[in-house]
Write a structure and sequence with these properties.
- This protein folds into 2 domains: 91 residues, no CATH class; 35 residues.
- It has 4 helices and 2 strands.
- A two-stranded antiparallel ribbon has the order 1-2.
- The radius of gyration is 20 Å and the shape is flat.
- One of its GO terms (biological process) is DNA transposition.
- Keywords: DNA recombination, DNA-binding, Transposable element, Transposition.
């Protein structure tokens, strides 16, 4: 418990001088990370470094995933497993751009807009071409 408490105090000191957007992004990242870890613990049947008879497999590091939020992009760590796979139910797999952007591109295609114009539109929305 002391370790968690000191980590929170360190995080609080780091956020004191930050602007409100980065504070909210960090709070969202911390909340998402806690939910991801809780779901991984539930799936594995044991917490980190915990030994139980109901453990299914072991953790094998993390991989990062960038999640787009209203407060900006945040990076969360998704646990990797030694055998099997895990992906949090809270996130969507392979989601690179917003669903609204897909709708815009599909609508432009249906109406016969040139690929160069669609590429310019996608670039104006802040997403790389492709």
């Amino acid at each position: 418990m002391t370790h968690d408490h000191s980590a929170l105090l360190t995080q609080l000191h780091a956020l004191k001088g930050a602007d409100s957007a980065s504070v909210f992004a960090e709070l969202i990242r911390t909340g998402l990370q806690a939910l991801i870890e809780a779901e991984a613990t539930d799936k594995l049947g044991a917490g980190r470094y915990e030994r139980t008879g109901t453990r299914i497999t072991h953790r094998n590091g993390h991989r990062t995933k960038t999640v787009a939020t209203t407060s900006g992009d945040v990076e969360v760590k998704i646990p990797k497993l030694r055998s099997g796979s895990f992906f949090p139910s809270l996130l969507e797999r392979r989601r690179r751009i917003d669903k609204a952007l897909y709708a815009v591109v599909m609508e432009a295609y249906v109406h016969g807009v040139s690929t160069r114009s669609v590429d310019d539109l996608v670039g104006a929305l802040g997403v790389g071409s492709g």
